[in-house]
Amino acid sequence: MSGGKYGKNWPVGTLKSRGWTEALMKELLPKPSYRHFSGRSVRTWNKETVVEAEKSERFIAAAEAAQQQRTEEAEREKEESAALLEASLRLLEESWRLPEDAPPEAALLAGHYHRGILGMMKSGAQPSLREGKAMSYVGHLLALRQHAGDGDAAPGTEMKRFAAAGYWIGTLKGEQRERLREGYAPALLAAAERAIADFTAAQPESDVHALLTMEGFPAQELLSHPLSYLYSVSYVPRAIRSSLELLVALNPKDEYPEARALQRHFVVHIGGTNTGKTYAGFQRLIRAETGVYLAPLRLLALEAQETLLDYGVNCSLTTGEEEDVRPGDTHVAATAEKLDMKRRFDVAVIDECQMIADRERGYAWTRAILGVLAEEVHLCAAPEAKNLLLRLIRSCGDSFEVIEHKRKTPLICMNRVVDYLDIQPGDALITFSKVGVLSVAEDLRMHGKEPAIIYGALPYATRRKQVAGFLNHERQYVVSTDAIGMGLNLPIRRIIFMDTSKFDGRERRPLKPEEVQQIAGRAGRYGIYDKGYVGATENLSHIQTCMETVVPPLTYAVAGFSDLVLMVDFDLLEVLEVWNRMPTVEPYHKLDISRYITIISQMRERGFHLPKEQELAAANIPFDETDDELIMLFYRFLRAYGNGTEPEQPVLQEKKTAYTLPELELYYRKLDLYFSFCKAFSCPVDSDALRDEREKTADLINMILLHNLKNNIRFCDRCGAAMPLHHSGRICNDCYARIRRNYARKGG
């Protein structure tokens, strides 16, 4: 071609590709020119001369004759190949004789292997395969009779190679032919028995007979994938529609067929708090073309988004309470519950994976680990989670590597109790109730020490303002609940426990070693302090014991119900009730879904009849359904949606007196419920107006924490009036006196 290495000439290879023979070149073309290329001499002809010669009757006739010859040769080769393939298929059918005492399920699977081989031979046998190589493939398959499952190659691989040798099988003669007749079926049977044994050992709850008798069984896929893959990808999605029993007995890993179809690789980062495990995973995420970061807290998700944006990575944010979806994003930072199970990523980083055993939220980590669609997955976890995580990864058939991380700064347990009024800059005081946090903070403030305040019910925007005050050195101390222990990266020198027990929602109990270690590990931030310290204002011996205790390994992962419940042709409430009653396979414990059942039942009792997708979406909305005002707001939103109108954003009612802390916190939770409801039901949201209202409310709460805390700590359970800081009892003196007067009037 003009401008190419041969200029305006064509080399001999080009001419032959256009139908020229040596005889035609000699007859119709002038003598060639020679060009030197890569140390060799190449014959070339002028392009225009060649094109002109191709118009001659002699060339056209010769080209047509050559094409006819090629067509006839191709037809002969096709017929010969078809005859060879037919002979091979006939020999295999003649050789297909299973013993009468063959185990029924193994016989079924061996039959699928046989049909898979025949199907692959018909579509993919290779006539060009050398005879010697083909015969070695035949030998390898027959060896499965004695060594099924042994060696480097899996049985499916040997069967695919055997099918590729299909054209040569029909040419076998004498002893080789007889060996194939006698060994073919037993070899497939032996491979089938081994495959079933492996499958049932790994998944004893699975119905292998139902899988093997499935209509339209994908036999050819057996040669590329194990039974566990076909069970997850082919059988479960079909069978689940009509089988409630299958749904409730399903191994959680089989709920994610798309993930089972991937060959995922896990990098498991193991270490205590402040060991750099999350940092290591995050560095890989930054370099990835696409990625997702999953956090236990929205504050951490936001921190991750901001870090990625600072690196020039286009990252969106998704949490239960807010979204920042950026056009053309390549990365997403989210709370664990908000993982998009349908979106593919190159890299996923899942933080705080020891949460997998948490009875309320652990299901989100289990779901993410089993189902995230990423070829490379980084898990960051405490040491006690290591064995359980590896067990789950192995059950999925994925590969993994483990990286152990150690603290770079020593963590020292103090040997004497601390008076909390003698705290030092960089100290964090830990108590386990909101009232405790506010009371301690006010006491410190009365002694001239301004602390940052962190507790679980504190609105996200306010918490961020408090954290910023500590980071900017506007406040030198922190008073917090255990909310500080989950990934908040603060420059803390000493962690001081003011309580060594906590109410866990069911009972008041001593702190567990893993809880103490998680929180204590926040002391001694690397790069800021050379050492970290942990102490207590009382019962220091319990803290010391917890710090010295090796936390036992986690034994179970919490599994939630799958979105597959929407595929089952049964009433959603019936499915959930049955699922909730049934046990699950090891090492899983089922999430208690009583809340879902209660919310759906109450919606129906109030006349809200929604498609099951929307019922499930409604039950998934995160809010405190035991709060009367929030549940009534939820029903108001449902009523508006059912009437075809848009839910209205809540407003803060005007009042003559100042708003109290509980009033503002409740209003903020109403705004969160509004956002979550609108996202669940695809209702439009004025994002700017909602953001402004949240910020305004957060500022009001922050002002209370900074300037009016003493009047916003304790409130009467009956009238809501503020009570003195050290008031004993849950009702104010006025309400108590009123109760006494009423009691006396009734003659008590």
Structural summary, described in words:
47% of the residues lie in helices and 13% in strands. With 748 residues, the chain is of the alpha/beta class. The strands form 6 sheets. The protein has an 8-stranded mixed beta sheet, with helices on both faces. Strands 12-19-16-13-15-14 form a 6-stranded parallel beta sheet, sandwiched between helices.
Q: Features of this protein?
A:
29 helices; alpha/beta; 6-stranded parallel sheet; single chain; 8-stranded mixed sheet; 23 strands; 748 residues; elongated
Unreliably modeled segments: none
Strand content: 5-15%
Give the radius of gyration: 36 Å
Distance between the termini: 112 Å
Global structural class: alpha/beta
Strand numbers in spatial order across the main sheet:
7-6-8-5-9-10-4-11
Q: What share of the residues lie within helices?
A: 40-55%
- Shape label: elongated
Number of helices: 29
